[in-house]
């Protein structure tokens, strides 16, 4: 069958104007190259390095916002296409939130954990990001700043961060929190 391609942002989250991020495309492939698309239009090509290609965005503007995907090609033949990942560029006006996890960062499989994203703005809503994941894990409800995972497993292990926003009248964002590593034994 066709190889599976994963696509994700590193670091995850909304990019500040003038900021940077990297779009990572990876697959278990031998050779060939990746083609990066934004809003359905081809924008860059890169040879495979190991099992990954990284496309950097620096000095971000609103023109960099959009829906990105990767195609993996061998010669001119498309062997696989990734899911899409949305790149957002926004104004950072809120303070940086602080992410914590209870009962701790090292938990046994099957345990429950609660991620808490603390921010001083009472009307903020927050996203929880897991590095390497295409989408944000959850949108915290307004007034609730925690996200529960029951019965954690090895797939929940990884690096997490959170980012908050308010709509006043347009989106205003916080920087992304410092990261936390969750280890599942």
UniProtKB/TrEMBL annotation:
Classification via Gene3D superfamilies: Immunoglobulins
GO BP of this protein: cell surface receptor signaling pathway; immune response-regulating signaling pathway
Tree of life domain: Eukaryota
UniProt xrefs under InterPro entries: Ig-like_dom, Ig-like_dom_sf, Ig-like_fold, Ig-like_Receptors_ImmuneReg, Ig_sub, Immunoglobulin_dom
Alphabetical keyword list: Disulfide bond, Glycoprotein, Immunoglobulin domain, Repeat, Signal
Limits of the Ig-like domain: 3-86, 97-163
Pfam families, A to Z: ig
Name of this protein: IGSF1 protein
Species assigned in the record: Balaeniceps rex (Shoebill)
Biological classification of the source: Eukaryota, Metazoa, Chordata, Craniata, Vertebrata
Gene: Igsf1
């Amino acid at each position: 069958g066709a190889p599976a391609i994963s696509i994700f942002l590193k670091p995850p989250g909304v990019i500040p104007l003038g900021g940077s991020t990297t779009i990572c495309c990876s697959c278990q492939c031998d050779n060939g190259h990746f083609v990066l698309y934004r809003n359905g239009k081809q924008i860059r090509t890169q040879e495979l390095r190991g099992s990954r290609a990284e496309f950097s965005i620096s000095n971000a503007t609103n023109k960099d916002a959009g829906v990105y995907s990767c195609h993996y090609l061998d010669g001119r033949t498309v062997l696989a296409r990734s899911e899409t990942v949305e790149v957002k560029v926004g104004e950072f006006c809120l303070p940086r939130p602080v992410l914590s996890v209870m009962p701790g960062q090292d938990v046994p499989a099957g345990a429950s954990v609660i991620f808490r994203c603390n921010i001083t703005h009472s009307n903020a809503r927050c996203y929880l990001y897991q590095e390497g994941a295409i989408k944000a894990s959850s949108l915290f409800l307004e007034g609730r700043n925690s996200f529960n995972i029951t019965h954690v497993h090895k797939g929940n292990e990884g690096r997490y961060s959170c980012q908050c926003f308010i709509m006043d009248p347009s989106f205003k964002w916080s920087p992304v929190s410092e990261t936390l590593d969750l280890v599942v034994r």
